[in-house]
């Protein structure tokens, strides 16, 4: 992005510093010889908006209940810690809350730094760093960093994105602070667990017609990257999410150390002791939709409906983009999901266009339920440079009337991977055995991965440039040339 940098004199810097305080009340820029006032060029801002600059966090918070304001916060790092709870700066578990309407907030050059010890200051509450309640708000270009390793007594989120017709754009979030961290969901999630979890997700989206755009999430906590509960006509666009993964071999190496996993003898939430040979994400899902959520204006539970995910990248989360629980339109377009245990899922009547992923730690696509139907899916397997680890399929197809085209840019197929149409899902979390039927579905396989039609496949149309084993009934198999 093109930017024009204007230099201010040391005198101006000293004037600003003299009227502010250390920590939350002022930006941490007193050591700079010059301050930079960043002015975006005309292509980046609406030059019809006239902003008012505020110089302290106290003055900024005072604007959050106002309507029709355009606010810039002076660039710098603003630190929030336990003392700010006692002082009354952030007295409640929803720390910074936007309640006004029809307003714009420009945080260019601003960092909010949250000491995770804050999470424990509010007792057994759901702690939220930023929340948007208002309508027609645009907030852009804020950096949020969690420091420390303290975890909430209940759970935490960086952002609760609510309201109507709001936009968050250009945020860069580094999230930390959950327990236990380092095992993903091996030992449980929320309701069912072997080890009780204190989760910390990054962004929850609800409300109507809200737009999350060009945000970056680097997550080092257990929870979702972005999840939608009751959001209506939500758009998630241009976002990049980065998690991390760990081998079960490394988890088992904790034996005798008194770690949380060692203390439960490595007994997984699935009822058996974990074994070596599987790669797990330490996060939950990258971009996820749930069935329902509360509409904060009406207080009613509403269906999640109308969800578009466009131009997004998810790396090393449990799943990449799984929005199958939403109703009405479900669209994934020009996205990439790599290093995941399952890259994509759109449930029924969902569409994936021009998207890609790998299958090194899990399938590029999995039908989660036998009731999945009527999807249009176009995916390409790519090589992100990660080494295959674990036992799983390249793709698992179940359900009815599914239409999938699978391509690849890999130079050669990975070993011991195949495409399953019905049959048993493979992977550590499926040792108890899960098998779906597949009926009246079409698979166009332009990869070198072999296709195995299970005994519960019927009436499927398979076009493949690799080998096909048909153990089903009334299936049609056509050999094609690989592109």
Using the alpha-carbon principal axes, give the shape. Answer: globular
- Strand line-up in the sheet with most strands: 9-11-14-17-24-27-30-28-25-18-15-12
Q: Please mark out the parts with pLDDT under 50 across 5 or more consecutive residues, or reply none.
A: 1-43
Measured between the Cα atoms of the first and last residue, the distance is 37 Å
The mean pLDDT is 90
Ordered list of secondary-structure elements with their pairings:
Blueprint: E1 3-7, H1 10-18, E2 36-40, E3 52-54, H2 57-62, E4 70-73, E5 76-80, H3 83-86, E6 94-98, E7 103-115, E8 126-132, E9 137-147, E10 155-161, E11 167-169, E12 172-176, E13 200-205, E14 211-213, E15 216-220, E16 226-228, E17 232-237, E18 240-242, E19 245-247, H4 248-252, H5 260-263, E20 279-281, E21 287-289, E22 292-294, E23 301-303, E24 305-310, E25 313-315, E26 319-322, E27 327-333, E28 336-338, E29 342-345, E30 351-357, E31 365-366, E32 376-381, E33 395-397, E34 399-400, E35 403-408, E36 419-421, E37 423-424, E38 435-436, E39 438-439, E40 442-445, E41 451-453, E42 457-458, E43 461-464, E44 468-470, E45 476-479
